[in-house]
Amino acid sequence: MHRSSNHHPTFLHHPPSFRRRKFPLVSSAVDFPSRNAAFFRRFRFLLLFFVVFFFVYNLARFFRFSSDVSGSSFAGAVDFVFPLKNTVFSQDNEEYRLEQVLKNAATRDKTVIITTLNEAWAAPRSIIDLFLESFRIGLHTQALLNHLVIVTLDDRAYRRCLTLHQHCVVLVTDGVDFSKEANFMKPDYLQMMWKRIDFLRRVLEMGYSFVFSDADIMWLRNPFPYFDPDTDFQIACDHFTGNPFDLENSPNGGFNYVKSNNRTIEFYKYWHSSREKFPGYHDQDVLNFIKHSPYIDEIGLTMRFLDTAYFGGFCESSKDFNEVCTMHANCCIGMDSKVFDLGILLQDWRLFMSLPPSLQQTQRYSWRVPQKCRFNMFFAVNTPKESEAPHTI
To answer: What's the pLDDT score for residue 87?
Structure first.
């Protein structure tokens, strides 16, 4: 007999007793995964709650620290490398973060360009903007920005750096405020200079060579071809005697090229420790005292002074636009004066670069600066001689 097409499946025609046994089993099988799903939902919610709580807690700690510490410095050890300070693994983690920044910025031979920045010099339309602009309009200098590390001295400078550049690091020391403009030769200024020397020593110990440049130095031409590859320590001058090996040159610590090796590491240790022999003097003065020391020969350090024809400044300018590499707003006190004159200097350079090559080579051009800086040059302190040192070496 033909069965209807809508005939129900056979298992529905089993005796009722079977269905009563079957349905509870089926119901338990359905309820078990639903209870599992509810458990995992509650677990995910608790996990998410703790993650959010941990994030908010650390964020609150960061903002509280930022409000409490408005300034920063170079410490003998790296006291604070952004973000959080009071972690259990603080120093190792800080060293790791700093080395990561250096590694990302370094050239193939582990060389970096380093400058420092505080809140005062980080303000919009201030020193840092002129500094970065010089790289962009200089001759073969724009690519060097990839190797520039900006070491900021306070949280606000760090935040501004992040909007301007890719390689930023912030270093902080408790109880020290370097966010404002440091007056020349005042205690804060001296402390900042010596912390800088000690920090650079740490960079050398990490195996990185560096060009250190103050941010008020305009990079107009790639300086690397003008360095001697066989010299350990090369430094710019306020005044150049004409002989790059003459110890009577007047060094300026705002620009130097230093190779990482045992000799330079030992030299930076000696330089930093010499501050105790010459209290009240900054790093540049102390260098002028110790450059004749027999200890320099003992460690085998080779030293060279850079010609102001290539590495000039307001003290002694680079007169040939076809040779100048850098121009420094030295022999000038006050950020406003520096910003004004450096702005004019970059205008002069743009005008020169806009000329046809034939005119660049045949015409003589001169800087229109210093202007405002000229009026405060008499405040500049003469570099002391070794004979003027208050203690013997």
So the answer is: 35
